[in-house]
Amino acid sequence: MTHPNGTGLCLVTGASGYIGGRLVPELLAAGHRVRCLARSPGKLRDHPWADRVEVAKGDVTDEESVRAAMRGVDVAYYLVHALGSGRGFEETDRTAARIFGRRAREAGVRRIVYLGGLTPEGVPESELSPHLRSRAEVGRILLDSGVPTTVLRAAVVLGSGSASFEMLRYLTERLPVMITPSWVRTRIQPIAVRDVLRYLVGSAGMPPDVNRTFDIGGPDILTYRDLMRQYATVAGLPRRVILPVPVLTPNLSSHWVGLVTPVPPAIARPLAESLRYEVVCREHDIADHVPDPPGHPIGCDEALALALRRVREAQVTTRWSSASVPGAPSDPLPTDPDWAGGSLYTDRRDRRVDASAEALWRVIEGIGGENGWYSFPLAWAVRGWLDRLLGGVGLRRGRRDAHRLRVGDSLDFWRVEEIQRGRLLRLRAEMRLPGLAWLEMYAEEDGEGRSRYRQRALFHPRGLVGHAYWWSVSPFHAIVFGGMARNITRAAQNEERARPGSGRRTGAAA
Q1: Which part of the chain is the NAD(P)-binding domain (predicted)?
Q2: 157-158/75-78 β-pairing
Q3: What is the pTM of this model?
Q4: Is the backbone peptide bond immediately before 270 cis, with ω within 30 degrees of 0?
Q5: Which parts of 313-434 are beta strand (E)?
Q6: Per-residue pLDDT tens digits for 459-484
Q7: Exposed/middle/buried for 117, CB within 10 Å: 0-12, 13-18, 19+?
Q8: Which residues pair with 411 in a beta bridge?
Q9: How do beta strands 414-420 and 410-411 pair?
C-alpha cells in the first residue's frame, strides 16, 4: 500500500513523451520510487532525473517486457497511444492495453492510472473520430482488467510545449486574419498541464474501491475562437479576426494546421477531429479524491501566461515532439563499414579549425532552430516545405532548448540519436525519404590548441527509388554539406576570437 506521502514503486510508460517526461519528476518529488518502461532507454539518459529512476527496456506490445517491468510495482501509469497516424493503430492500442492490464493483475499492481480523452456527451462511440474512439476503448479495457483503475479524461491541455498549445500559439501569432474550420465555434474546457500532473500524482493514493473515469478540466468553458482571442490578449497581440467556414473537413483542417504551425498533419488530424465535438466536463468528482488547493484548477488566462512565459524564457522541459513521430525511421545507425544491411552512401567533410574544441562544440550543439543550419537557408526551407506537403514534420519543430540538446530531442526534421558531450552529435532524419538518413558532427582536439571538425552524412536507400534519390541530390551536396562544414568552422573561429572561453555565440548561419 502506498503511503500518502509516497514511497511506492510507480511504473511510468511514455516517459519520453510530453506528459510522461513531466510526470516522473513530480512523482519523485512526492516521494515515490519510479521505474520507466522505454523502447529506447538512451532517450531518457539526459533528463535531469535520469539517475534517480530505474529504466526497463521494453514496449507495451511486448508481453514479456511488460511482465518484467511490472515486478514489484504499486501503481502503473499508462501514458502511451498510437495516435492514429497509421493503419491498424486501433488494434495496436487494443492489444497493448490488454497486455498492460493482464500483466498488472498478475503482478499484484494496486492501481492503474490512465490519461485519456474527454468524449462528447450524447454522441455514440461509433460516430466518434478513430482517435477518440480508441482512447475510450483503452480506458474500458483497463477498467475491466481486474486492477482498480483511474481513467482521467482531458480535452485540450495547455502547457508550454504541448501540441495543443503550439497549435494555438502559431495559429494566433501568424494569422491576424483567419479563415478557419467551423470547429473554432465548438465549446471546450481546457486544462492546465500543472493540474493534469497534480491529478495524475494524486490518483496514486486512491482507495481500492475506486474503479472509474473522472472528467478533468479547468474552470473555463469557451470556444476555440475565444481561446485564440484570449491568447492574443495574453501575448499582447492585436485582436484577431476569425472567420469560420463549414467546408474545411478534418483532413483539410489537419493540412491547414500543418502549413501554418510546426504540428504535422499526422498529429494535427486527431487534434482537429477531437475539436469537432463539444468536450465539456460532466462532473468534478476527482476533487473528492484529489482536493483542489487554492488557485486550482488554473484558469485559461493564467495557464496561457505560464506557458508563454516558459517559452519566452526557454524553460520548456518537454514538448509534444519529445515522443517519436509515428512512421518515422527508428533503425539504429549502421556504424559497421561493412554493414550487412545493403548499400550505404556517405558524404564526408573534414576541416581544421583555428579554435578550441569547446568553442566548436558550442556551435555544433547550438545548430538548428533559430540558429539555422549554417548553409544555403533557402535549400533547407524548400526541403522543409516539401516534407510538409508530403505529410512529414517539416523544418519548423525547432528546438526544445536554444543551447543544450539531449538524446531523443526533436531538432527541426531531425531527432537527436546520440550525444557524446563535447565530441559527437548524431542526428537521425525524420523527414519523408525513400530510405534512412543520419548526420554526424564531431569536434576533436588536434593537440596544438586547435581542433578538427568532422562531418558525415549517411543514407541507406530503400529500393531503386532510394538510389535514384541519392544520385539526384548528390550534385547539391557540395553546396549544402560543404557550406555547412565551412560555416560551422567559421562560426567557431569567430566565437573564439570575439570572447575566448566565454561560450557566447557570435557566428550566424549563412
Answers
A1: 14-155
A2: unpaired
A3: 0.71
A4: no
A5: 345-353, 410-411, 414-420, 424-429
A6: 888 778 888 888 888 888 888 899 99
A7: buried
A8: 414
A9: antiparallel
